[in-house]
Each structure stands twice: as C-alpha cells, then as structure tokens.
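User: Quick sanity check before I run a bigger batch. Here is a single chain. Can you write out its predicted 3D structure?
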Amino acid sequence: MMTFPQIDPVAIALGPIKVHWYGLMYLLAFFFAWLLGRYRIKKGLFDITVQRFEDLLFYCILGVILGGRIGYVLFYQPSYYLSNPMQILSVWDGGMSFHGGLLGVLLAMLWFGHKEKKTFFQISDFGAPLVPLGLAFGRLGNFINGELWGRPTDSSWGMVFPHVDNLARHPSQLYQMALEGLLLFIILWVFSSKKRPVGQVSAVFLIGYGFFRFIAEYAREPDGYLGLLSMGFSMGQWLSLPMIIAGIVLYIISAKRSRLPS
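Assistant: Done. Predicted structure follows.
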C-alpha cells in the first residue's frame, strides 16, 4: 500500500504569481500536439501548411478550454456553479470535462474544415493521433492535484489519499493516463501511419477512448454529487457509450465507402 505524496499543486510561485502543475500539464499537452502535428505534415500525412496547422491548433486549444470547462459545469455540477458563478473561471483548481472539450474541438475542426474546404473527417483523422498524449498529461495533472481518486481496493498497489480518507484506493488517474493516454496514443499512431479510408482514424479514436474510459471508470470513485446512475454506470460511462457506438458506425461506413468503385 502506498500513500499519496501530497504534491503542492503550485509548481512555481513568484510573489503573487502562481503557476499550477495542472496548467503546466495543459501547456505540455498543446506543445506535444504541435510537435506531432508538424511531424505528420512533414511526412506528407496531411495536405496543410504548418502555419495553417498552427491556426487549427489555436482554435482547438480554445475548444478544449472553453468546451472542457463548460462541459464540466453542465454535465457534473450545474447547481454548484449556478450558485457560485465566479468559480467557473477557476480552471487551475481542476474540473475539466473531456467530453465537453471534445465537443469544443469538434466545433473548431468543423469550422476550420469549412474555411479550408476540407471535409470534417479529413481534419479529424489528422488531429486524432495528436490527442492521447495530451490526455495523458491531463490525467497526470489530476493525480498531482489529488483529484478524481479511485474506489477502495485491497490490491497491493492501492494508494491512500489522506485528504479523502484512510482507505487504500485505486490510483485511477494513473490508470486513465496509461489507457486513454499512452496506450491509445500507440494504437492511433501505428494505425494512422498507413493510408486509411477517410473517417477510420477518427473512428478508432472514438472506439478506443470510449472503451478505455468505460473500463477505467470501474476503478474510479463516482463523483460524490452524482454517484452511480442507472444500470450502475457512472456519468463518464454514460458519456462514453455514445462515443463507442458512433465510432463503430463510422468505421463500418468508412470501410464500405472505400470499397465503392470511384
């Protein structure tokens, strides 16, 4: 059994200026997305200039931040933030919804694709492999913040979070970092290294993330203000199921279209 190391959420403090680890994780996520995107462009995996890609990345960053925060407010704690509206701005304390951030990014890609006269799935197939490493950094930020801890466990790698209770719990943030982040990155990077029918890389992302998130939620403590919902599923699981279904449908459709005579 281990004990959570009680990491100071503030990485750097210069007088009144404080830089939080959570914010640094987001910076690292965007930095690696920029590096990986440039690499894919130079390899000829997408017909776009580096400058236009950087514009796309900027729009997606806005989508992640605004969508992620708004999604968290609406999906998880609407009553709290309705009573404390100024707390909506406190993103450095955590509280970002992946599913809300995904919707924000999808809107950014849709708008960018329209401007560039490219289809939505051409854009999303290029962007999907850039996402999982960012998710890994985000989950590491959750761990450093000591939030989103796991359910009680008897396993030898259980971790006590003293600010929660004295029970050994799953370090579910690290499970999600490994599954939704590192493993999904490897799967998508390898899968997208060869030419695929339009839409299939996006489909694999939807299926992979939805599946890994659904599984990891069994080790994650449900949000106290929500608990388990119908069928014993958490909110994260219910939000992941449509992703899995949409990914399967998209994969089948893209495979069928690729076999049609041109």
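The two ends are 60 Å apart (CA to CA).

User: Great, the batch can go ahead then.
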